[in-house]
């Protein structure tokens, strides 16, 4: 991969990460369209860290509040924020575990145009369904089972 390809893909990642579309797909499709070699999963993960850094920077006050609440008396002093932090951790754990266990499968079987199209349609339907779920109790109503499911 040339530096031009890397910069182009990083720009695409930055522009599409916060849209309700697959920024990961936009990292795979240019390679297919322009005939470039696949940059690989490691590059995709690396450019996602830039988006993670932007999220952490913009939410630093809230993250500090949640982390402090989790650590001060294990949440007894600020129970609402601590509970949210523990639920985020619980919801993140299965994704991390499955990512570690399925890395080879993802890299060999899920990085193709058909899977991207299918996933885009599936997530579009999920977003459409979620749009009509208003009136729910919000974050305060999430229990342990729902956090694990998320």
Summed over residues and divided by their number, the pLDDT gives a mean of 84
Radius of gyration: 18 Å
- Look at the helices and sheets and give the structural class: mainly alpha
Unreliable sequence segments:
none
- The helix-strand sequence is HHHHHHHH
**Distance between the first and last residues' Cα:** 35 Å
- The fraction of residues assigned to DSSP E strands is under 5%
Largest sheet report: none
Total strands = 0
Number of helices: 8
Name the shape in a single word.
Answer: globular
Please bin the fraction of helical residues. over 70%
Please summarize what this structure is.
The protein has 150 residues and is an all-alpha fold.
Please, could you describe this protein's structure?
This protein has eight helices and no strands. The chain is an all-alpha fold and 150 residues long. It is globular, with a radius of gyration of 18 Å.
What keywords describe this structure?
8 helices; globular; 150 residues; 0% strand; mainly alpha; single chain; 74% helix
Protein topology:
Layout: H1 3-16, H2 23-34, H3 41-58, H4 60-71, H5 79-101, H6 103-109, H7 113-131, H8 144-149
Helix pairs in contact: 1-2, 1-3, 4-5
